[in-house]
From TrEMBL:
Record Pfam families: NAD_binding_11, NAD_binding_2
Family the UniProt entry places it in: Belongs to the HIBADH-related family.
EC number(s) from the headed UniProt entry: 1.1.1.60
Protein name: 2-hydroxy-3-oxopropionate reductase
């Protein structure tokens, strides 16, 4: 029998499925629960165990990991008679890797403490590709001892793993990450439209730009999306819209001005209003094309 902690994984979406599979590859026993049967079948095919409920998944787990879309979903799976806090064993470690509001993480940690459950907020950056390749950046909030215990698990999922401060700090850093990513994608999208309208070889231009100061992980990851107009979701506009709401609200609460971020947040919102919410966030290119006169 393995001496590794038993893991319950709640939420097997675009990110959660490959992440849970990487833990299985690393030798962990993973029991998962999600709403979609095909995702449970995928977990079982990868060597995990499918559970019929949250309660069943977490009952014997040493570590519970959650990866769901937003604060309401975290609250739905954490609280209530069928939720994590009522069914996980005392002493378990709950690692929430969703991207939610910092306050939700703080409140969850307080509620869990009353049940004898420790909590880390540990949102990630790197998208679907980073999840598949196990090279995610993981920003963590919580106690040092809990972080140290979870470090081997994080190392099976990512490459850059940092304790950023107390509960909620991981989510605050993730909000800043999403601000930077959105503004970066928007700048890249504007450059793409400018280059194409100028008659430049776009592939060549993006290659040379990515080799200089304008280069970025965003451009490296999204270059082919721009070139091929391939907006299959790695990270959906809908989710980035949620994250821009988190960062603009959090910034307002602490008195930080986000003039460029506010504009990009509105551009993301406009994409959703035009039916593009299910596309990858690189589809910000479509918004720039529309503004530039193209029929998209």
């Amino acid at each position: 029998m393995s001496n590794l902690p038993k893991i319950a994984w709640i939420g097997l979406g675009i990110m959660g499925s490959p992440m849970s599979e990487n833990l299985i590859k690393a030798g962990y026993q993973v029991t998962g629960y999600t709403l979609e049967k095909e995702k449970l079948d995928r977990l079982a095919a990868a060597g995990g165990t499918a559970a019929g409920s949250i309660a069943e998944a977490v009952r014997d787990a040493d570590v519970v990991i959650t990866m769901v879309p937003a604060s309401p979903q975290v609250e739905a799976i954490a609280y209530g008679p069928e939720g994590i806090l009522e069914n996980a064993k005392s002493g378990a470690l709950l690692i929430d890797m969703s991207s939610i509001t910092p306050q939700t993480s703080v409140d969850l940690a307080k509620a869990a403490k009353d049940k004898g459950i420790r909590v880390l907020d540990a949102p990630v950056s790197g998208g679907e590709a980073g999840a598949i390749e196990a090279v995610l950046s993981i920003m963590v909030g919580g106690e040092r001892a809990d972080f140290d215990q979870a470090k081997p698990i994080f190392e099976a999922l990512g490459k850059t793993i940092v304790l950023c401060g107390p509960h909620g700090s991981g989510q605050t850093v993730k909000a800043a990450n999403q601000l930077i990513v959105a503004v970066n994608i928007q700048a890249c999208a504007e450059a793409v439209v400018f280059l194409e309208k100028s008659g430049v070889d776009l592939a060549a231009a993006l290659d040379v730009l990515n080799g200089g100061l304008a280069g970025s992980t965003v451009l490296t990851r999204k270059k082919d999306n721009f070139l091929n107009r391939d907006f299959k979701p790695g990270f959906r506009i809908d989710l980035h819209h949620k994250d821009m709401g988190i960062v603009t609200d959090a910034a307002r609460n602490v008195g930080a001005a986000l003039p460029v971020g506010a504009v990009v947040a509105q551009l993301v919102a406009s994409l959703r209003a035009q039916g593009d919410g299910g596309l990858d966030h690189s589809a910000l290119l479509r918004a720039v094309e529309r503004l530039s006169g193209a029929q998209v």
